[in-house]
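Still learning. Show one?

>
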Amino acid sequence: MPIRRAAAEELPLLQDIERAAGEPFRALGMPEIADDDPPSLDLLRTYQLAGRAWVFSGTRTGRPDGYLIWQQVDGGAHIDQVSVHPRAARRGVGRALIEHLQRESGAAALTLTTFAEVPWNAPYYARLGFRTLTGAELTDGLRRIVAEEASAGLDRWARVCMRRTASPAP
């Protein structure tokens, strides 16, 4: 799959992907999510400089169709955002980015936070092998992330933390 590190000049394109990927939330009665600003260029640049911003470019133009940004949290790889442009939806772009992270990070587990009832969020990640964590299973770092998301108003809708352990090598 055509996955590579994001280039500095592509960061505005990642914002465009985020905006486009947010539009389907309107149909679910979540216009606030659709209207939410994408990650700032400064924040994306921080991920990019750390080598933690990857893009999927499946077209001949080389233009990104999706991206993933991540950070280390409590010894694991935490997906801060994975977004796919609607023009590339349902083609395995998100899955490919997540699989790439699992391989490249070497982390024993991947974690993420997501909307519990949005079909392309928690149910999708469950199909990829993620399981919902109970409150007692949350690490300090995940609790911090949940608190930050709540302060941003994301707890208006049901949210969950999910985890997937690395598969043993074949």
About this structure: The chain has a mean pLDDT of 93. The chain has one domain: 3-165. The CA atoms of residues 3 and 139 lie 30 Å apart.
